[in-house]
Amino acid sequence: MNWLNSEAFALFGQHIKWSDMIGNLIGLIALALGWRRSIWTWPAQFLSGVILFTAFVTAHLSGSAGKQVVVMLVAVYGWWQWNRGSGRSDNGGDGHIAVRFATWRERVLLVASAALGTVAVGGLFTAYPTLSWDPWPDAYIFVGTIVAMYAQARGMVEFWFAWLLVDLVGVPLNFANGFAFSGFVYVVYGALVLWGMRDWWLRSRQPALEGAPA
Question: Strand, coil or helix: what is 11?
């Protein structure tokens, strides 16, 4: 499997690794499946996490590697959450999740968890520099990913906002750490996130619109 961490080609003067490219392409597929509310988004996210984990470990980026472990764990949780029938639509039991906006209480908890988690993880990375080359951006990405994936597993529209905020920091962080394909893909993620955000927002309004008086 050493070929995964070898150079595939150069793009705009940046060296692209096989693991970086393959892992992120599968991640794009997972994001598209999430937009479609397909349960298969979770196996795709898990596989993407496995491949990117090998990439970051060999580059001695423990924080980013740890993020992929979280991605894999949350993917297992998301598969269970969506597959157990909670929030499914009545269109044949295909595992599609019913989407909604979070309550204000849930929003406060998500923001507070993101802020406190970033401070805690950033402090840990700062205390142990071998864990991360860029402690605070890395901590922000690490915690933001957890918050976004938890919100996705719960079918919250706000999950797209969380991903957008993660992307804004993820692009320069990945380029700085030599993962150019991740940086390029984060730009594509941004476009898909805006598209998915609109779709989920419209779907969250459908029950209310259907129940409105004519």
Answer: strand
The answer to whether residue 8 sits within a structural domain is no
pLDDT digits (tens, 9 = 90+) for 29-64: 887 888 777 889 899 999 998 988 887 777 656 667
Q: Both tokens of residue 163? A: 């991903």
Note whether 183 and 174 are within 8 A (CB).
yes
Q: How many contiguous H segments (helices) and E segments (strands) does the chain have? A: 7, 2
The residues that bridge with 15 in the sheet, in sequence order, are 10
How many structural domains compose the chain? 1
The pTM score is 0.69
Nearest to 102 by CA among 159, 144, 143, 146: 159
- Asked if residue 120 is part of any domain, the answer here is yes
Residue 214 lies in a domain: no
Position 78 in a domain:
yes
